[in-house]
Amino acid sequence: MGCGRTGAAIAGSLDRDGHQVTVLDLDAGQFRRLPDSFGGRMAVGNGMDAEVLERAGAREAAAFVAVTQGDNRNYFASQLAREIFGVKNVVCRTKDPERGEIFGHLGLQTYSPTSAGAEAILAMLPGSGPA
Amino acid sequence: MARFRSILAPVVDDPASLEAVAVAAALARQEKGVLTLLHVIEVERSLPVTADMDLEAQRGEELLRRARALAERDGNGARIEDELLQARVAGPAIVEEAEARGVDVIMLGVGWTPLLGQFEVGPTAGYVLKHASCNVWIVREPLEVATSAAGKTAARR
Amino acid sequence: MYVIIAGGGKVGYYLGRELLSGDHEMLVIERSASRAAEINDLLEGTVQQGDACEASVLDGAGIARADLVAAVTGDDEDNLVVCEIARYRGVPRVLARVNNPTNALLFEKRGIETTVSATEAILSQIEQELPVTSMVPVMQLHQGLELVEVRLSETSPVVGRTPREVLLPPESLIALIVDSGGVPRVPGADTTLTAGDALVVVTRAESKGMLQEALIGGAHGFDT
Lengths: 131, 157, 224
What we know:
The complex is a heterotrimer of chains A (131), B (157) and C (224). By secondary structure, chain A is α/β, with parallel strands linked by helices.
């Protein structure tokens, strides 16, 4: 859910590896980010809508990844996938690390690009550890 | 001119506020009235409004003592009362206290510090000016004094 | 009792105003700075500007000592997240306004109590009486239409009449009647309006003054 740069990259990679992938976005224009070779399904719709998720195949899905720009939208859709459709493996991107930590305690796997980015940059700065 | 028998002067720790106390005291003397000195402790939301704020209360008492000494000097013969209150925000507490005491005028000192590059009266004075049903007098020190380093502490009042 | 209201839109403002008159402590958290300033002035300084979906904002607002958190923004995902964080922080009661009824299922799965009529539900939770004559905003519909709830008092000019006899503003309609026992009915030709009934009415935003006059009479009890 969410065909931005991250979503498109994840979808492209999974598709290349032979998985069955459906990409969901509110804006069909976003699908241009997918590689030309992409063989999965593209669905236009709001992932916060249970009907849209069902039509996209949420009931049969082994994994659900929410990577829209909105932390709360990602959370809402992720819990729909988990609670309503019983998806086992749910990943919710959360930019706000504090919120992400709490979501992690509420049954989701979360990833915070903010914390991860900060850590990666710090690792590139020699001697950035304790002075 | 209306009579100003009962005056409320909110007190904070800055020169403009003490200047307002002096003006209020002079007025109280002339009117043979009552001057109430009020200090409001703003309690952050994470604590109950009735929380023990020992340090702030101690500071508030000290501030009121200083203000009272000043008021007694300039208000020779006027009745001086003081009150320490805890509230979330000062503005509504001042307006409420003014209503409860039925005062004729609120005497407020304002500092001179630009907020976001522009001069504005702070949130407390703004609220009181907008909502108090009685008279409100604003006291500002001369520009040179108000904008000097000493006057900066009056920011945001 | 300490009540935190997330969202200072029409519903949050109305709720805040009702709570202000009671014995409870109340705080409204509103994201938009201009809206927060606007209603802070009307709600005697009980509004804090900030994003209630951020745990640090809720912590600063004293969530640890809150007895009830009501999330009443216009976005269901935000309301869900506010309630989840509040509950995670140990708030004993959380309540969400649901804007899109199909979303209610997820809230239910997550064990979060929901309502479409936040004002009444929340006031009843804290055992505060609704004002005798009241017109409560419930939901924004499409194209300028709104859903409001009107509680009929004994002085209402429509008591004793049938819905058909009531002259309503254009494009307004009584959609549902809930009697004082909580039984809902669809208005029919033989329905008599009774004091204590709650009417759920669809109307246009600009017609609310007329609607109030028709159902409540006089010009009191409502402003937005």
